[in-house]
Amino acid sequence: ASANIERNGFGTKSTDDDSYNLTLQGMGGTIWRGTDGRYHLENENFAKITYNATADVWTVLDKQGNQYYFEESVGYTKDIECPNSSSNVHEVLTWRWMLTRAVNVFGKEITYSYVQEGQSFNHFYPETGCTTAHVVTNFIYPNTIQYANGRYRVRFIRTERYDYKPEWLTL
User: Fold this and answer.
1) What mean pLDDT do residues 107-127 have?
2) Within a 10 A sphere around the Cβ of 58, how many other Cβ atoms?
3) More confident of the two residues 170 and 142
4) 3-state secondary structure of 16
5) Is the distance from CB of 2 to CB of 99 less than 8 angstroms?
6) CA 165/CA 168 separation, integer angstroms
């Protein structure tokens, strides 16, 4: 099973009411922002959960002192550019953050890398001269797992997928 944090946007683009779900070995569940401004698991286990909005990354520190970094983000971007306009739009929304590093109390680190598969779509509006560009990540796959001290590495070999219809990838 993968380790990740996934956004539940409740079907809206507003992030004010979002909740998140943590999937991580030995702990997990719904993450809510408390009245104290901090993030907590619904079934409180005293993990310290922080989100850095500037870098768009999550960090989880469990009560044993192990640190987990969720730094690979998956989502979509939308850019609207109009000539001679100051109202250009750059919209980014992450829907999943993947575990990229785990560091134990002895400083030993295991790293994870991923391959993303997605699509892009551009549309030009001749009446306004504006262009809209969408980039969406549909799937994310494990690429490598690098164990502490660099002695061992697992590399995943990808092949073509035949379990979905190509039209599912259209916007």
Assistant:
1) 90
2) 23
3) 142
4) coil
5) yes
6) 6
Instruction: Report residue 161 as tokens.
Output: 């997928």
**Length in residues, the chain:** 171
- Confidence at residue 169, expressed as pLDDT on a 0 to 100 scale: 59
Show the tokens assigned to 104: 């134990």
Question: What is the arithmetic mean of pLDDT over 96-101?
Answer: 96
Strand ranges, E, within 15-162: 19-24, 27-33, 39-41, 48-52, 57-61, 67-81, 89-103, 109-125, 130-146, 153-155
Please give the Cα distance from 69 to 32 (Å, whole number): 18
Residues 6+ apart with CB under 8 A from 134: 76, 77, 78, 120, 121, 122, 171
Tell me the whole-structure pTM to 2 decimals. 0.82
Taking the C-alpha atoms of residue 58 and residue 30, their distance in angstroms, rounded to an integer, is 14
> Among candidates 22, 5, 15, 171, which has minimal Cα distance to 93?
15
Cα separation, 40 vs 104, whole angstroms: 21
Q: What pLDDT is stored for residue 57 in this prediction? A: 95
Question: pLDDT class for 167, splitting at 50, 70, 90?
Answer: low
